[in-house]
Design brief:
The protein is an all-alpha fold. It is built from 2 helices and no strands. The longest helix is centred in the middle third of the chain and has 12 residues. It is flat, with a radius of gyration of 20 Å.
């Protein structure tokens, strides 16, 4: 006879603050800083827009 593993269906939501995970000195922090402050990413705005309202896909 098969024995199935019990599935826990109670929801668990963990609050995640991604800014706190970007610790200075690691690669992820450097990439985040370059994209936010050094690179001009405005040329991607025309491609990544919401079709209905024209809003940017990623707000800054």
């Amino acid at each position: 006879m098969t024995r199935y593993k019990a599935i826990d269906t109670s929801p668990r939501f963990l609050a995640v603050d991604l800014e706190k995970q970007l610790l200075p000195g690691n690669l992820e922090h450097a990439v985040h800083h370059l994209i936010k402050h050094e690179f001009d990413i405005s040329r991607f705005d025309s491609r990544y827009r919401n079709d209905k309202s024209g809003a940017s896909a990623y707000g800054q």
